[in-house]
Design a protein that fits this description.
By secondary structure, this protein is of the alpha+beta class. The chain is built from six helices and four strands. Helix content is 34%, strand content 16%. Helix 2 packs across helix 4. The longest helix is centred in the middle third of the chain and has 18 residues. Bound molecules: flavin mononucleotide. The site of flavin mononucleotide has 13 residues, from strand 3.
Length: 171
């Protein structure tokens, strides 16, 4: 059984991919890991768009500099109309649900020995213009995925985490 803390510590943002396509079986496992994620009231308001055709990849590569040659990009989003809305403050939890789903996929990638990049730097309006199929949903994150290039390595921020004393308060 994988030791979770070891996996979490080993994972790093991949910024250089091999062009080798990902086998369908591995994509299936990534998607299954996302499907199993928890969601508020189990609404599962999420959707995943698989971008791996030449056409889809060239479109997404024009939208962000952060795909780093990955042969697969998953756009993870949600349909706000399907999310649970907390009565007390009207907060729709669909966004949070989709982030949890994307996190499951990212960690499954690490468990499979794959690289993953969580991409936040793109302009949403350009994404929706390039992919009108996403209409009605909000894309929360793009995940670049694939085999790491042989010389891929963690970036300078990877080892830098705040100490627990700075981020935990016992009340
Ligand atoms: C919400 C979010 C957005 C991010 N956006 C990008 C991005 O657009 N491009 C990129 O190269 N890395 C991006 N990252 C990766 C972070 O820079 C990285 O997780 C952080 O520096 C810690 O490094 P590590 O993941 O290697 O441990 C993003 C991460 C998160 C969680």
């Amino acid at each position: 059984m994988t030791d979770f803390l070891e996996l979490a510590g080993r994972r790093y943002t991949c910024r250089k991919y091999s062009p080798k396509a990902l086998e369908q079986g591995l994509l299936d496992k990534l998607l299954e890991a996302g499907r199993l994620a928890p969601s508020a009231k189990n609404r599962q308001p999420w959707h995943v768009w698989v971008l791996r055709s030449e056409e889809a990849l060239s479109k997404v590569r024009r939208l962000t500099g952060s795909t780093y040659g990955a042969p697969l990009v998953l756009a993870v989003g949600f349909d706000p109309s399907q999310g649970w809305v907390r009565e007390s403050d009207g907060k729709n939890k669909a966004e949070m649900d989709s982030i949890i789903m994307a996190t499951h996929i990212m960690l499954e990638a690490e468990d499979l020995g794959l690289g993953c990049t969580w991409i936040g730097s793109y302009e949403p309006s350009e994404l929706y213009e390039a992919f009108p199929e996403m209409a009605g949903c909000e894309v929360q994150v793009l995940l670049a995925l694939g085999y790491r290039a042989e010389d891929a390595h963690p970036g300078p921020w990877h080892p830098l985490r705040k100490p627990l004393e700075d981020i935990v308060t016992e009340l």
